[in-house]
Structures are given as structure tokens and as C-alpha cells.
Design brief:
The complex is a heterodimer of chains A (about 110) and B (about 110).
Chain A (H helix, E strand, L loop, with lengths): L4 E3 L2 E4 L5 E6 L6 E7 L5 E8 L2 E4 L8 E4 L6 E5 L8 E8 L8 E2 L3 E5 L1
Chain B lengths: L4 E3 L2 E5 L4 E6 L4 E9 L6 E6 L5 E4 L2 E5 L5 E6 L8 E9 L9 E2 L3 E6 L1
Parallel strand pairs in B: 2-11
Antiparallel strand pairs in B: 1-3, 3-8, 4-5, 4-9, 6-7, 7-8, 9-10, 9-11
Classes of the chains: A mainly beta (about 110), B mainly beta (about 110).
Amino acid sequence: NAGVMQNPRHLVRRRGQEARLRCSPMKGHSHVYWYRQLPEEGLKFMVYLQKENIIDESGMPKERFSAEFPKEGPSILRIQQVVRGDSAAYFCASSPPSRPNVLTFGAGSRLTVL
Amino acid sequence: GQQLNQSPQSMFIQEGEDVSMNCTSSSIFNTWLWYKQEPGEGPVLLIALYKAGELTSNGRLTAQFGITRKDSFLNISASIPSDVGIYFCAGQLTDGGSQGNLIFGKGTKLSVKP
């Protein structure tokens, strides 16, 4: 029973490029969340999605960041025109309908912007 | 934004010692979760708490949901070297955000000397 799968694990981009991070939730989980973690910090909520719907994007920066969870395929977190301050670990989590607050996290995608 | 105050920030202990860490807030939470994160990995759920006063154990770990719903503690008994890592508390506010929109503490970094 695979856990939450994220790829790539590491991504290096130059300023101005685009970053795409992918996440496949655990089998049976229909809720997907994205969090960001800066060095020496806790995780910060970004967005909550269900299939084809953004439920809560209150933690998403207003510009350059977008997320989707299509009917088929993984959830995608997309960062356009990356800047150095976007360097962080991005974690995806999923939860089952019965326990929506109990999040299982993936291993994360570490973005470095040069 | 809302904050969880997690303490201590770090602990250096001898193998076999007991450990205690806690989180407090000025806000009321309806769920408390404790996670452990190791370098390069995502947080792994240790214990989930749902009711005020709830005391739950998972092996050598014990956590409690405070009666006031504004705090929680985690105890580790008879620590071993593999307990090393960063422990995070996380909670969901009763009046803020959607399910899965968790507030994380800044973590307690635990080091165990054999």
C-alpha cells in the first residue's frame, strides 16, 4: 500500500523558470493538501483540493502559484517565474474521508532556486 | 496569523531518559496531532487527539489534549537513539480554515546520546 508519492524529490531552477511538483495521494484518499516548509520552520498550509476542485487556497501566495487536482492523474503545484525566496521543501499530504484532519505526508519536493 | 508555541526548541538527552515537550496557544483547537520528521523526509504521524482531556499512547509515546483545548503535550519514555528527529505539534482551529488546514508549531529538535 503505497504512501503519498511526490516527485521530483529535488528540483533546481533558475530565477524566472517554472517549477512543477507532482503528488499522488494514498489509495482511498480523496483529499490533497500542499504545505511549504522553510529551513528551521514548521509547515505552512498552502491549499486543499479535492478532485477537480480547490476547496481552500487561503495559504497560497496571490501570484505565480497555482494548484490543481484533475479527474485523472496527480495533483500539481505549479510555481511560475520562480524567485530565490521560493526555495523550500514542498510537502503534499492526503487524508481519508473518515478522518479529514489526519494527514499523511509525502517525503517532499525540495526546490532550490539559483 | 495564528501561532502554536512549542517548547522546548531543542533537547539533548541521554539514552534511557524520559522526554516531555508541549504546545500552547491562545486559541482553541478541535484536533491536535503530533508528528516526527527526520532529515530529508516528510512528517510522520505519531498520535492524533480529538477530544479535550484525551490521553493516548502509542508504544513509548503518550500525548494529551489539554482540558482547555489550548494545549497538548507529548511524552517519550525511555528514549533510544532512533528517537532522534524533530517533533512537531499541529492543530486545527475550531473557528479557522477548512479541514486539513493545520497550524504547525516550530518543532522540538531531539538529540539522544547513546
